[in-house]
Amino acid sequence: MKQMLLGAFASLMLSGAALAEEMKLAVTTSFHNSGLAEVLLPEIKADLDLDLQLLVVGTGQAIRLGEAGDVDAILVHSQRAEEKFLAGGYGSHRREIMYNDFVFVGPGSDEAGIQEAKDAAAALQSIAEVGAPFVSRGDDSGTHKKELSLWAAANLDPQGFGAWYRAVGAGMGAALNTAAGMEAYIIADRASWLNFGNKGNLKLLFAGDPVLFNQYAYLPVSSDKHPHVKTELAQQLEAWLTSDKARDLINGYQIEGEALFVFNAQQ
């Protein structure tokens, strides 16, 4: 019986019924919290016979994983960090896939009055003036990098802030949970906010400043740096992510009638 089972298994393998290909993709917590992965991964599996293993981390950590050759590609949202990654020879190229925007979320009472702010810098200045509770990702993610750049544009330095400023060193979902518990202000990507289920008294209070634009890009890890990376699979995934099918799935992904991302890959 044992020999018969072994023979059947060998015949199955020889007939081409092998396991699906696997590759590792580092993605941001904001992408994962949006729920879009749950839409895309089954379609990727069906079309490419590819088991896509997601490593869910902040942009900074995703880039470090790429630099170390621990993943085959990264999907992140911090262009300056991405360009530095490419300049170091760690990535083969950068391909824009989709975008959304960052939003300011806070308590419905809006102690700082940011609903009336003329721009993002003014909103942050108002929060700092009254010392309203503010939750920062504090994790070197793309969202954290954007937040720091916005404070700098407002001529403010978080290192000088008091106890009202709380850096939690956590992903987008955990940071939003903290903000909900504290009834604090926070900067989030729109997709994570819309998919967040524990809103409590938090509301979207400010959005629309062009500086809050949030581009996601796909960067395959360079095989020149790391010959073991699965370049061919990374190329197949890139072709799928920039296809008409991906466009329709990304643009069609909505929560309560509101789109979470806009596809903008150049085909």
**H and E order:** HEHHEHEHEHEHEHEHEEHHEEE
Number of strands: 12
Helix content: 40-55%
Integer count of domains = 2
**CATH architecture designation of the largest domain:** 3-Layer(aba) Sandwich
From the alpha carbons, calculate the radius of gyration and give it in angstroms.
21 Å
Q: Segments where pLDDT lies below 50 for 5+ residues?
A: 1-17
* Intertermini distance: 54 Å
Number of helices: 11
Shape: globular
Q: Can you identify the CATH class of the largest domain?
A: Alpha Beta
What value does the average pLDDT take? Answer: 92
Task: Provide a descriptive summary of the structure in words.
With 267 residues, the protein is an alpha/beta fold. The chain folds into two domains: 16-99 and 213-263, Periplasmic binding protein-like II (D-Maltodextrin-Binding Protein, domain 2, 3-Layer(aba) Sandwich); 100-212, Periplasmic binding protein-like II (D-Maltodextrin-Binding Protein, domain 2), CATH 3.40.190. It has eleven helices and twelve strands. The protein has helices spanning 2-14, 29-34, 36-48, 59-68, 79-87, 120-130, 142-153, 172-182, 190-195, 231-241, 244-252; strands at residues 21-28, 50-57, 73-76, 95-107, 134-136, 165-167, 185-189, 202-206, 213-220, 254-255, 258-259, 262-263. Strands 1, 2, 3, 4, 5, 6, 7, 8, 9 and 12 form a ten-stranded mixed β-sheet that branches. A two-stranded antiparallel sheet has the order 10-11. The longest helix has 13 residues, at 2-14.
